[in-house]
Design brief:
By secondary structure, the protein is mostly helical. The protein is built from 5 helices and no strands. It has helices at 4-17, 40-51, 57-74, 78-102, 108-121. Helix 3 (57-74) packs antiparallel against helix 4. The longest helix has 25 residues, at 78-102. It is elongated and about 70 Å long.
Amino acid sequence: MDLGHLVEEKIRASIKQGDFDHLPGKGKPLPKDDLAYVPDDLRNSYRILKNANILPEEMQLKKEIVQLEQLIAESEKCEETSRWNVQLTEKKLRYNMLMEKRKLQSSQAFRQYSSKIERKFGW
């Protein structure tokens, strides 16, 4: 049984009755896609990760780097600070290796998209 025809009839009836006349945002342009600057081959993957509330590996590393930098800046104990500095160095190396491997740093689309993400996280 084809439900497409039935759905189309319901939509037409609702339009005639004016059910869609007072919807929020009517007559305004659609909001821009958050992933508009992500390269096409990565966009669907990022959308799936975003919907699952999972950050891509490079963004997760960046988040951890910022957290470690904040801990180090607020820390007074030398023993903990040296341990965090080691972790910070490891994470920065991993991040740089990942970026080099993916060659995203040279991508204009990645720079525009990553700056949006960093602003959302307050980096």
